[in-house]
Specification:
The complex is a heterodimer of chains A (230) and B (125).
Chain A lengths: L4 E3 L1 H8 L8 H19 L3 E8 L7 E2 L7 E13 L3 E4 L1 E2 L9 E2 L5 E6 L3 E5 L1 E2 L6 E10 L10 E2 L1 H4 L2 H13 L9 H23 L17 H6 L1
Parallel strand pairs in A: 6-8, 7-10
Antiparallel strand pairs in A: 1-12, 2-11, 3-9, 4-5, 4-11, 8-9
Chain B lengths: L4 H12 L11 H18 L17 E3 L7 E3 L11 H15 L6 H16 L2
Helix pairs in contact in B: 1-3, 2-3, 3-4
Classes of the chains: A alpha+beta (230), B mainly alpha (125).
Amino acid sequence: MATEYTESIENVLKDTIPQLPGAIRSVVARECRLAMREFFEKSLAWIVTVENVAIPDGDSAIQITDSDDNTEVIAIMDVKIGNATDGYTTLQPLGGVPDKIEGSESRSYGWYVTSNPDELKLHPYNEGVSGDDLRVTVGLIPAFDTSLTETDLPRQITLKFYDAILNGTLSRMYMHPSKPYSQPMLGTQLRHNFLRQIGYYAAQRKKGFNNSQNWSFPKGWTTRLRQRYG
Amino acid sequence: MAKSYQDVISEARVLLQDTDSDSYRNTETNLLAMLNRGLQALARIRPDACYDLYSANSLEVPELVESSPGAGQTIYTADFGLEMQFFNALVHYVTGMAEIVDDEYTEDGRAAMLLNQFKMNVLGM
């Protein structure tokens, strides 16, 4: 998703403050940030592919950053290894540290997370200078130090995910105890809608935002063709 | 023009009919103490009222002084640092508390009404 930063928290406040009599503006802004953080962390609806990640020599961790001050990496979702000439191959995600950590002069076939959410290691690790690099797909959340008025939020916030963000913000506010705007029942309803929208956009993301299929034959049932060409 | 904390006391004096500066019934010091208590009462029932005043990771309730503010203190002529929706509530609080002690001129019902008004202003619609 190409990112254009055109939105600010102020945009969201304009549509939430009128529904929150007696609310403190900065508290609404804080809940808005938390709702956005939750939305993007759970749905992973904001993804970006980081290209040309260098492969270190030896058993070293690789920290993934998208080099953008407005975002934080919240998940590593896919790692490919290769180069522009030969193309890229998907590395197998491993559930944890392998039983034996070893190096190899040929390509790594797996990767595992060493420090959630943005640090990984390859298995087997690379020995020597690699002619390959990594292509890493990561999930993003907005950086937390966003100002109220600065346009450092992506356009998708109001273009696509707006209802979800509004529901998330309002539900958090309505759940506050003993405030003029407290409405726990409505808050519960909006929270339900918010979680449902997280699921909806997570599903869209899994389908690549273009309704592409998102499955492959399980490895045990693999076909001869797949065995041959991977 | 921005309101100051001192304006809370000035507006309370109007409600108290205590605006003659040559012969105040309530001293500025006493009303300022009531305003400080009011801010603490407000922070207890609406901790978010002081949200913008968080300091060193803790809730910071302004402690107002008439002059020579020390560390962590604010001179009461400074701009009103809370949202304006709490201004009127604090006027009611200071007036209500002053009515309690100003027994020569007060009716108890008025003090209770003003203190209830304070609570209504910050918690109710």
